[in-house]
Amino acid sequence: MTTAAVEPILRFIEYARTLKGDEKGEAQVFCDRLFQAFGHGGYKEAGATLEFRVKGAKSTKFADLLWRPRLLMEMKKRGEKLQKHYTQAFEYWLQLVPQRPKYVVLCNFDEFWIYDFDSQLNDPVDVVALDELPQRYTAFNFLFPVEKKPQFGNNRVDVTRAAAANVAGVFNALVARGEDREQAQRFALQCVVAMFSEDAELLPRGLFSELLDECKRGESTYDLVGGLFRQMNSQSPAKGGRFKGVRYFNGGIFQTVNPLELVPEEVDLLLKAAEENWSKVQPPIFGTLFQSSMGKERRHAFGAHFTSEADIQKVVLPTIVRPWRERIEAAKTLKELRALLEELRSFRVLDPACGSGNFLYVAFRELKRLELSLMAKIHAEFGRKAQQSVGTRSLVSIKQFFGIDKEEFAVELAKVTLMIAKELAIDESQAWIDSEQLDLPIEFDAALPLDNLDDNIKANDALFCEWPEADAIVGNPPFQSKNKMQGEYGPAYLNRLRDAYPCVPGRADYCVYWFRRAHDELPAGGHAGLVGTNTIRQNYSREGGLDYIVGNGGTITEAVSTQVWSGDAVVHVSIANWVKGDAPGKKKLFTQLGDLRESPWEVVELDEISPALSASFDVTQAQRLRANIDSGACYQGQTHGHEGFLLSPAEAAGLLQASAENAEVLLPYLTGDDLLSHQPPAPQRYVIDLQPRDILTAGQYPKLIERLKATVLPAREAAAEEEAKRNKRALDANPKAKVNQHHRNFLNKWWLLSYPRPELISKIAAMPRYIACARVTKRPIFEFVDKGIRPSDALQLFPLPDDYSFGILQSGIHWSWFIARCSTLKGDFRYTSDTVFDTFPWPQEPTIPQVKKVAEAAVALRQLRRNVMAENQWSLRQLYRTLDTPGQNPLRAAQQALDAAVRSAYGMKAKGDPLAFLLALNGELADKEVSMKPVAGPGLPTSVKDVAPFITADCIKGGRESRYGR
Q1: 747-759: per-residue pLDDT in tens?
Q2: Strand, helix or coil for residue 663
Q3: What pLDDT is stored for residue 437 in this prediction?
Q4: Crossing angle of helices 322-330/358-390, nearest 10°?
Q5: Which CATH architecture has domain 477-615?
């Protein structure tokens, strides 16, 4: 930074020294001058707000300064210990949605504590004294008008990544040169415990690093490191020699010691890991990073994803911490407090999909803090006699925590994570006592020997084994969609799963079984909080999990409807926290509004949270209508099953030129991307569609059959053979097992598309055009398609050629129903015929003028789209992105005109809630169908006698006629 640029910071420091440090009277001017020092006219000119209202569950408080989406700043009086206000700052940050600020700063006029809760809880990413600002200003790079990446001095995530990368590098090298994998894993974990321990001074200071240094100079790790590990498992301390002063560790991890001889490169990696400051390594994320880096290049650890502690707290806080806080705050008598303390010390927590133990680690630390705060309350309010009755020893133990995981190494890693938690508990608890300014002479159990957790953390399949009793169940069950379960686990496992859980729909996602089992295992009044795929709130997955929970005595107390998961860049998740019983008061529902980790949030307070995890009107109880089911007006497109069926335009042109007859079965093929991303929308490939021909009739197209025989047939033979092997294994294990014959069926008709949808093709062949939308989409975009184009399975099809039907489907009223009833893929909406279309009630008695208005508005909307797209060379996706910004927009106006016409056709009030109206209409029509009364289904009303005026000509064309519009 230039001298001229430093001058404003120097002036700020000079001014700040003149202040008395009064939190109330001088905080605002301090903040204003700070913003001036970093290039703004002041806080107001930068767009920040002072005294921002933060609404909590039971009260409203005020944040000193909020500058979205960058900064929350809390000012405290000069001399105040900033550690004390960490909890307040974190709770404020959690509530500040949408546009939750990236950074939080606590300041007492002389010192700045900077937090980035998305990556690091508890410890600030940097601490900067006022006088250090001229040299350390880069830690505040986020304050400049043009934001830069801050340079922090206490980034524990970076330290943890480096440590995980180096330890994983040693493991990978050992396995690569032939060492037994299990022995290499145990050796790596023993090294991790040793490195934590030497920095925590449970080993003689620097001992492990010194041993590695000697090995680098020629000594043997087999002798030195192996000898250390044997001594760590010995109850008889060494009276002298190299390992004098090494205490007994136990813990199970050192019961088996297999010394390994490391080569120099491996010693270097381990020494690099040991040189890291392991007091800064974060156990909740180390295990995940280490495990995900095993068997991969070293650089993978530096880019691997991990579940942030902020996300873990979205389960631990509402499921464990807040219920206990409320009980502690409500307790008034010594008898009540002593009973709570006794109960807390026997409180059991289970993670039935524990992985590396990150949820258990955070839960243990928080339970330890709850114990300390409870003891502090007793000591402060009831005098010396009460102090003597409860003592000063902290008795919350890692033996109160339990875990299950299918992976044996994950189980060993989880044990180490909790062992380390015990090691760190003393320092962490003392630091927390200091931060809360508690007068509490606390005693802790000795850090050594470590507890043996073999009976607490076990390797097993949680869906088929007995669960230990628990008062709270937390965790992050495996993310596996129903569509991938067959390939991942095989038919034998799925049959076993469905036999064990017959009431869970077969189309539910894998994680749903954990939700259901957790609720069954909870005692009355027990709490649970689990992370699941965001389909847990939808359709079959919701029915198997959250519907069951709410319908069987459960109350959802806090939830995240959808968010981008920190543990995986491509996963959107939902989080549900619930109690087995009643829960009075408001419940908070959080929703992330986008596909990026930085996307904004919204929060609403509700009297109750529905299983759909939605603040909208709950339409989960809508019924399928026979009028819609029997209409034949909604289909998924064709699934080709193999790329051999698809041709480029050039390939198709050659075959069409070779034989005119090929045009009968070689047709333009439209995908969702063709519809949304091309200008003009048009098919980019052709498909060979030989249905409904048998193999003899298909032989009339020899060139096409020759192509399919060379490409498709071998693949289908191989897939059928592999399927037969899987089925044999399943039937050998269980003769009554249900097995799939999909690939056998595909092989029997190898010349046909996997799912050619003959009923759909027959319908669209009888009309000039049909309606299509992308099955997975962010926006409501429907379009007409020429009957000569084959639709892919990325499209949802509606064989309805008229403008009125288009208007209903394109309307915001239908879109509201769509997003409330559909499933999702990541953050996008997926059209599902049985839950969306079959339940959607169409207008029942619109007048002819009302029908005409809908049709006219639909035609006008499409005409506007074509004109704007042609003028700007935009695709439909680019056009609809203009609606993401506020302000006047001709497309928005055209859509509003269509919506008004559709509301009129329904008889719906202009400002009425469309979901409430549609649900009521759905129920009314369902009752009519039971009574055998007529119900109007999809399409033009029967009152329209002359349909021709409602069928215009604009649509997507393909092939030689490829054009858009009329």
Answers
A1: 999 999 999 999 9
A2: helix
A3: 65
A4: 20
A5: 3-Layer(aba) Sandwich (3.40)
